[in-house]
User: What shape does this take?
Amino acid sequence: MACLPARAAALAAVLLAPTLGAQRPASTPPVLPVATPVATRAACDAEAAADTLVPAAGIQPAARAYWLDAATVQWPGAPAPAGDVRYALYHSADGQLRAEPGVAVTGADGRVPLAAGAAALPAALAARFRFVGAGARLVLPAAARAGVDTLVRGQVLLVREDAGGRVLDATALQLPGALDARYAAAAAVPDLGATPHPRGARAGGTTFAVWAPTARRVAACVYDGAVGPAARVVPLRLDPATGVWRALVAGVGHGAPYRFVVDVFVPGAGVVRNRVTDPYALGLTADSRRSVVLDPAHPSTKPAGWDAAPRPRALAAPTDLVVYELHARDFSASDTTVRAAWRGKYLAFTEPASDGVRHLRALRAAGVTDVHLLPVFDFASVPERGCVVPRVPADAAPNDTAQQAAVSAARARDCFNWGYDPFHYTAPEGSYALDPDDAAARTRELRAAVLALHRMGLRVGMDVVYNHTFASGQDARSVLDRVVPGYYHRLGADGAVARSTCCENTATEHRMMEKLMVESAAAWARYYRVDSFRFDLMGHQPRSAMERLQRAVDRAAGRRVPLLGEGWNFGEVADGARFVQASQRSLGGSGIATFSDRARDALRGGGCCDGGAALVANRGLLSGQV
Assistant: This one.
């Protein structure tokens, strides 16, 4: 115990007892006291995104095995148990396992022996894990299955060993299958996030709820403002049936900033205390430093006329959509007919006599039906305070490199980005707001933009990017992975996050990532009156998830909401490797639209990745083909 950091000693004393050995049968994991928060106001106020409470020992092996459900694991490429070769799960509450070839495992709290599993999986399980390679399929003893909750809250290694207990090989496990099976009831929880109660028996309070089944402690830090110390720290209690931690906090309502303190085992790091914002946040302070309790019905969130304003009439058929794609900042950033403070902001859409608004009215008169806004959800690539506009030399020649050099020099602080870098899926981006610290004003100003477009007769579409996040792991801009490590992202055969989207791929085939996507889209349709959605890299999502999303947004809007997206077929999910995709080849009969690259190329010319001379040489119908 003397080698542990002093601030972790008290925690370690709790986490390390009881161990296995003589006190418990070898197949029964220890019981951790997961509902006794130790977070203090000092923990809430620390600047660092995380503290390591108990560092892991040794190097964490890659996660090459899959926990398929609460009872079954599979290790691709590993031989079946036979003769002197056997398998076991070793576990350590605080990450002290060492599994080195040729010697016995050390640092374990206990060992769970595994037996050979059935040759065939149940049909649903086999379909979900069809991408997993053949290898040793193993089952936990019945007595150990009740302890899965405890196992997933600490370090677990799957070890192949000889008859003398010496390690032949070892791997960590990918947990999503076990978490989805064990906590399936969480998908029906209706109030994840912060839910204020303006009326009724709970009036004046807010319910905080976060799904964190692998956490051992969770607390909510509540603040008086966007900056300053925590006013309160409130422990959340675990519902063991769902893995949801929750608390009803009296005296906290609309407008209160908050974040969570999550004590959780992180593979490779140890027991970590993460200070993290809410994955379901509807409101944020500047640069997403704190979530904000937001009541979408509160008067401070509504522009004048919002409640009584009707939506534009629904289109008779999806083929009637005529879409104009528009970047919220580009629309007005250089428009001198917009008042200076509103340029590049949501409120520029409400400037009735601006050049941009006049152009939109002209487009509507010409037959455009929908304006699709590039990402207006919270993204990580633009500083919401203190961003800069690159100073491009005015006298540089068109073929000079000075322009690129100027833009590159300011890249990390540039006010411009397309926005395909999701940070929080369901809160408006702050760089387009007049005051990014005012969460209610963000909502009011984006609603004002929607209302202005609706009054022009234009329906409003939204470009959404649920296929990836900006960051994963313990990065300070990672949200999902710091709440439930290893769950929300799609992992490769070695346990690393897949990046075929060029960012950190999310796994909407996992039950709770699908739930987050579906409920986020429904919130945009309900609270912001978004009329249609354009999905970035939609082919990386299951068709079944998109069909559930379609039903959810239709209910939220009270009418059919057109969905369209990029149905490209590539990456680790290509050709239905993991699920039936929401791709061009698989969406027939769904009513969900995909872009047609074949029609695009026939009209424009060239192919998917052509540019420059190739586009000139390979002309289309609109570019001079004869």
Summary: Residues 1-37 have pLDDT under 50 and may be disordered.
